[in-house]
């Protein structure tokens, strides 16, 4: 039988049982749509998280903390000066092959006084490396030796209160305003006294939608000076070290080796590359679970295909007998039924992809709308994403399920005795 005759006969048979074919294909559509929607949601969450992750971090970055990670689970911190993340530790880490830069991180709690209002927040030390990453909304950045200047997060102005009435003060002008840092200094007697450091606010940062919007920023030397005043100890950085270090490596390929070297020095090191890998594993598991749930629905639809084609055999008993009598082989009969099953799977797969995509977009719109109603900041994310591989996978899987479902009816039809089929009424 020529391929053109084969395809023509398949189309004719499917049109003849149009309603039954449509209902059977509907089951495939539902199963395929479930796969596309659920895996698409998993892919969307993975894509959004990855983009956010990459916008805030780099895969060549390693975060280093004091102490080592024990097998029991918790962090083990040491009070020995050699274990502190001080300038000696920075020099040791810089000597590791592949390390491009080591950036210390320090922040201290202070009270910022402006125009009679007081804001309790953190002031973060800025190095030459981190200064480049500050994104200004207005004003200018400070120079690292400019000890009397600071920049503030976009929402610091919202945190001021009257120290006498404890009522919020609104409308304080931040840019180019003069302020005072109120530093609480610990005394040997156990008491504390307040020291005042005048500063000028020379810049306001772009809003990021994170806790950073409520922080102030100053040259790291100034923040270290504040820390020594608070502790009343000029060697506090040498003794206690920085909060943590950010280590930047020359290339992604060297990250794992540098991480091992840092861990060997007795510190805890977490690379962004490791965290990125963990995230990918987590989301791949989620997509596999979601996809399996959709696949179950598609396998149920396969039972409908089997039922449709088996019923078709009984209705076409005599027709199959005539075809065999005029020379159709068992392979020809098998091909007809397998192609009919594949066609149902193909139509259902295409329809399922379209329905799944539409359903996913509606879910995405509803989710973003809901997030915007409960969030103080505008939410611009996409929780649904259909990669090209998912389209091909869903379509191929639907067709393969159709073909698999058609094997039994095809074998049964091809095994019919032509004489018995011709005698069938």
TrEMBL record:
<dbReference type="InterPro" id="IPR003838">
    <property type="entry name" value="ABC3_permease_C"/>
</dbReference>
<dbReference type="Pfam" id="PF12704">
    <property type="entry name" value="MacB_PCD"/>
</dbReference>
<dbReference type="InterPro" id="IPR025857">
    <property type="entry name" value="MacB_PCD"/>
</dbReference>
<comment type="similarity">
    <text>Belongs to the ABC-4 integral membrane protein family.</text>
</comment>
<protein>
    <submittedName>
        <fullName>Putative ABC transport system permease protein</fullName>
    </submittedName>
</protein>
<keyword id="KW-0812">Transmembrane</keyword>
<feature type="transmembrane region" description="Helical">
    <location>
        <begin position="384"/>
        <end position="408"/>
    </location>
</feature>
<dbReference type="GO" id="GO:0022857">
    <property type="term" value="F:transmembrane transporter activity"/>
</dbReference>
<keyword id="KW-1003">Cell membrane</keyword>
<feature type="transmembrane region" description="Helical">
    <location>
        <begin position="21"/>
        <end position="45"/>
    </location>
</feature>
<feature type="domain" description="MacB-like periplasmic core">
    <location>
        <begin position="21"/>
        <end position="264"/>
    </location>
</feature>
<dbReference type="Pfam" id="PF02687">
    <property type="entry name" value="FtsX"/>
</dbReference>
<feature type="transmembrane region" description="Helical">
    <location>
        <begin position="289"/>
        <end position="315"/>
    </location>
</feature>
<dbReference type="GO" id="GO:0005886">
    <property type="term" value="C:plasma membrane"/>
</dbReference>
<keyword id="KW-1133">Transmembrane helix</keyword>
<keyword id="KW-0472">Membrane</keyword>
<feature type="transmembrane region" description="Helical">
    <location>
        <begin position="336"/>
        <end position="359"/>
    </location>
</feature>
<feature type="domain" description="ABC3 transporter permease C-terminal">
    <location>
        <begin position="292"/>
        <end position="418"/>
    </location>
</feature>
<dbReference type="InterPro" id="IPR050250">
    <property type="entry name" value="Macrolide_Exporter_MacB"/>
</dbReference>
């Amino acid at each position: 039988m020529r391929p053109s005759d084969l395809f023509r006969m398949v189309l004719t048979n499917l049109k003849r049982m149009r309603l039954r074919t449509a209902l059977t294909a509907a089951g495939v559509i539902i199963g395929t749509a479930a796969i596309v929607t659920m895996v698409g949601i998993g892919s969307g969450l993975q894509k959004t998280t990855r983009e956010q992750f990459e916008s805030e971090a780099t895969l060549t970055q390693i975060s280093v903390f004091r102490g080592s990670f024990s097998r029991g689970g918790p962090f083990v911190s040491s009070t020995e000066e050699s274990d502190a993340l001080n300038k000696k530790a920075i020099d040791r880490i810089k000597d590791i092959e592949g390390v491009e830069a080591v950036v210390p991180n320090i922040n201290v709690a202070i009270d910022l006084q402006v125009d009679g209002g007081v804001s309790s927040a953190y002031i973060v030390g800025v190095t030459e490396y981190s200064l480049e990453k500050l994104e200004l909304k207005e004003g200018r950045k400070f120079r690292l030796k400019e000890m009397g200047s600071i920049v503030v997060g976009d929402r610091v102005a919202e945190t001021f209160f009257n120290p006498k009435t404890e009522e919020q003060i609104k409308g304080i002008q931040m840019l180019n305003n003069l302020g005072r840092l109120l530093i609480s200094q610990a005394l040997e007697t156990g008491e504390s006294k307040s020291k005042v450091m005048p500063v000028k606010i020379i810049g306001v940062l772009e809003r990021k939608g994170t806790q950073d919007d409520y922080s102030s920023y100053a040259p790291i030397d100034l923040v270290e000076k504040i820390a020594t005043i608070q502790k009343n100890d000029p060697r506090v950085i040498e003794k206690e070290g920085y909060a943590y270090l950010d280590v930047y490596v020359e290339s992604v390929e060297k990250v794992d080796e540098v991480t091992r070297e840092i861990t060997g020095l007795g510190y805890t090191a977490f690379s962004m590359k490791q965290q990125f890998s963990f995230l990918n594993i987590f989301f791949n598991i989620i997509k596999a679970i979601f996809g399996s749930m959709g696949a179950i629905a598609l396998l149920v639809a396969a039972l409908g295909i089997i039922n449709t084609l088996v019923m078709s055999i009984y209705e076409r008993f005599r027709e199959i007998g005539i075809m065999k009598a005029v020379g159709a082989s068992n392979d020809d009969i098998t091909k007809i039924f397998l192609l009919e099953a594949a066609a149902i799977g193909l139509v259902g797969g295409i329809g399922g992809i379209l329905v799944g995509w539409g359903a996913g977009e509606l879910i995405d719109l509803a989710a973003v709308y809901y997030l915007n109603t409960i969030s103080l900041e505008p939410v611009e994310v996409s929780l649904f994403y259909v990669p090209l591989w998912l389209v091909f996978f869903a379509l191929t899987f639907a067709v393969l399920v159709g073909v698999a479902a058609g094997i039994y009816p095809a074998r049964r039809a091809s095994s019919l005795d032509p004489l018995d089929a011709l005698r069938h009424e």
